[in-house]
Amino acid sequence: MRPPCELVAVYVLPAFRSLVAKELIEKYGYTQVAVADKLGTTQATISHYLYSKRGDKKMKQIQSIPIIQSRAKEFAHSIASEKLSLIDATLTFCKLCVALKEDKFLASLSGCNTCSNMKK
Fold first, then answer.
1. Which of 13, 17, 69, 118 has a CA-to-CA distance to 57 between 20 and 30 Å?
2. Are the C-beta atoms of 70 and 100 separated by less than 8 Å?
3. Cα–Cα distance between 75 and 42 in angstroms, integer?
4. Quick one: 82 exposed, middle or buried, by C-beta within 10 A (0-12, 13-18, 19+)?
5. Up-side HSE of residue 32: CA atoms within 13 Å toward CB?
């Protein structure tokens, strides 16, 4: 069994970063290198997000979730307007994770009910 946090790291974070990267490049004119620097990854990873021909079904499923799309756009805007500290970036993603737990998305991804049984 994979714990929900591992699923977030393996599936949700790359899907989220991919949406943010596309937004920063297409809407704000960032280069792949600049996006990689802002997201703490490599230019090769950003290129993979943009041009990967392997259509990972799970990533596309995750990217189609409205809350992930809207949070990615907000995140990209915050980066572009330079209003995002490292702490704010971490909190933004943590809040997304909490929202996905409340929405039971992570349970559907893992087939696990752990998140919904956790005490708040």
1. 118
2. no
3. 19
4. exposed
5. 10
Please tell me the predicted confidence (pLDDT) of residue 7: 78
CA–CA distances in Å: residue 15 to residues 43, 64, 65, 117: 16, 10, 10, 26
Domains of the chain, by residue range, sit at 4-111
Residue with tokens 């737990």: 101
Contacts of 38 (CB under 8 A, 6+ apart): 24, 30, 79
Per-residue pLDDT tens digits for 69-115: 999 999 999 999 988 787 888 888 888 888 887 777 666 665 555 55
DSSP state, residue 36: H
| Backbone angles phi and psi of 23, in degrees to 5 | -65, -45
> Global pTM?
0.81
Q: For residues 30, 34, 36 and 40, what is the CA-based torsion angle, rounded to 10 degrees?
A: -120
Task: Identify the three-state secondary structure at position 85.
Answer: coil
Residue found by looking up tokens 């997201």 in the block: 39
